[in-house]
Specification:
Number of strands: 9
Distance between the termini: 5 Å
CATH class: Alpha Beta
Number of domains: 1
CATH architecture: 3-Layer(aba) Sandwich
């Protein structure tokens, strides 16, 4: 079951992390239901949640946005960054968002939540299979959170 408090926790966490780490404001699009499997873009980061809230969140980056984010995080002005370093930087960004969201939920609803280490998935046509229902939260034209938590 999708809960507004969960969705809001991810929106707030994403805006905070992008603002503080990248100096970038995110533009919230209209959340919508997705069928599964779904295309996840050129790079995705999956984080699992256990405890009072359980399931998966897939952060999907499109059109090279992950490389831009990684270069910014690493202070690389020319945009040239090794692929393994870029993947690690983007995974850490998603880990920060997940950690902030879990903390928001723990503080506001008294829920105990543990997050897993982020898993980076990259390739051409990625297909993500996560337990429905899946709510897509677009936060930029090239970044979205695909949420499946109960």
């Amino acid at each position: 079951m999708i809960k507004a408090e969960h969705v809001n926790a991810f929106i707030l966490a994403s805006r905070k992390v992008f603002s503080e780490m990248l100096g970038r404001e995110l533009k919230l699009g209209k959340p919508y239901a997705k069928s599964t499997p779904f295309c996840a873009g050129s790079l995705a980061v999956m984080v699992g949640f256990t405890g009072d809230v359980h399931g998966n969140v897939v952060y999907a980056f499109k059109d090279g946005f992950s490389a831009e984010v990684a270069a910014c995080l690493c202070g690389c002005l020319d945009g040239e960054i090794p692929e393994d370093i870029a993947a690690s930087a983007v995974a850490e960004l998603c880990n920060m968002i997940s950690g902030h969201a879990a903390t928001n939920l723990a503080e506001s609803a008294g829920q105990k939540i543990v997050i897993t280490a982020p898993a980076v998935i990259s390739g051409g046509e990625l297909r993500a299979h996560i337990r429905p229902p899946v709510l897509c939260i677009p936060l930029d034209e090239r970044f979205e959170i695909n949420y499946s938590l109960a």
